[in-house]
Known about the structure:
Blueprint (H helix, E strand, L loop, with lengths): L11 H6 L3 E3 L6 E3 L8 E2 L1 H10 L2 E2 L2 E5 L8 E6 L5 E5 L4 E5 L5 E5 L2 E4 L2 E5 L10 E4 L2 E3 L4 E5 L7 E4 L2 E3 L7 E5 L7 E3 L2 E4 L2 E5 L7 E3 L2 E2 L9 E5 L13 E3 L2 E2 L9 E5 L21 E3 L2 E3 L1 E4 L9 E3 L3 E3 L2 E2 L2 E4 L5 E4 L11 E3 L2 E2 L8 E3 L5 E3 L3
Parallel strand pairs: 3-5, 4-6, 5-7, 6-9, 7-10, 8-11, 9-12, 10-13, 11-14, 12-15, 13-16, 14-17, 15-18, 16-19, 17-20, 18-21, 19-22, 20-23, 21-24, 22-25, 23-26, 24-28, 25-29, 26-30, 27-31, 28-32, 29-33, 30-34, 32-35, 33-36, 34-37, 35-38
Antiparallel strand pairs: 1-2
Amino acid sequence: MHLPRRTVFASAGAFALSACTAPDPQDSGHTSLPQNGSTPSDTNQLIQECARTGATLPAGNYRYTGPGLTGPNLTLLGAGRGVTHVELAPGAFLIDDQEAWETLTLSGITVSGGAGAIRSRRRDANVAGIYMIKDCQFFNYTQCAISNNSTDMPYWQIENNVFRAANSQSTLGVALSGLTDGSAITNNKFLTNRIHLKLDRGGNNTYVRGNDFIQFDQGSSRVSLWVVPSREPNNSGAGLVLESCKFGNENLSSSDRRVLYADEGDGDSFGQRLPSSQTSAGYITGHTLRACLFNGADNNRSAPVTSMTPHVRACHYGPVTLAGTAPTHFLEFPKKQADSPASNVVGPILLDDLDAMPTVSNVPSSTRSMRP
């Protein structure tokens, strides 16, 4: 069963060229900035100054053509994601830094174009303050909207944002590298990406809540949540919570996956690498998935959770709701190998057609069922 495609969100292009207004210092009203079809002004210096001082970037259309904002305590605040719009040059990032960050705040802005909005290139540990990205829209990026490359960078707070990439072949919405303890990805709308959300090291102690994972466009081999297994059992995902999320069937293809445990393929950075199809020797431990909705489709009966590693342990998937066409299994190991005895629990599964109830796993010894 297919649910109707939802069209409540305006297209990325509409935001890129829409007319905005900015406060006029000469009066209490507003004066129009460039209208449809005109080019946003080059305002690198203004954007840099606002990010440095925390002053609000007024409503309007802006073009940023700089090398990427840098600094340990950047705060870039817009007047609202529907009225403050920053357009990036092809291949560029709005924030692009290889030094350590103490804090970061990006709020109330629509960022379109470029490779992405935020990239931390630092590979060493960066354990400091809170990195807050909220109430923003990210459109037409060609690589990754938000990414880092650190071995340990906790306390990301990513909430109430919209992610719609330029394509669903090579793009990622959010990619958080290394240990991500205490990070929360909440109430976001992921609309078009190859990978909506990517977590590293098993997603240790990360909270993914209230997100909408759908696809506005057709494509293949896409993933809603990809968790890269840890190379060792310690710090391999204990405490990750995935709850109250919708996994829609809009434009779902037969090769798409919902939750995937898989190693990385080749690539220069965490925000570029895509999943490997090879068997993983890594570990996933201690995940909790609950109160999520998985809408199925006739052309895709894949499991809500697919693991390329046999080492999935002490995870609890349930209660969950299945709607539309039910999957064959809930937890699937494509290589049909998994650790035994059963330490994972699936259920309760809420499904109105009990005759279509999936088995808990294609490797029964790995998982046991919990009935309602």
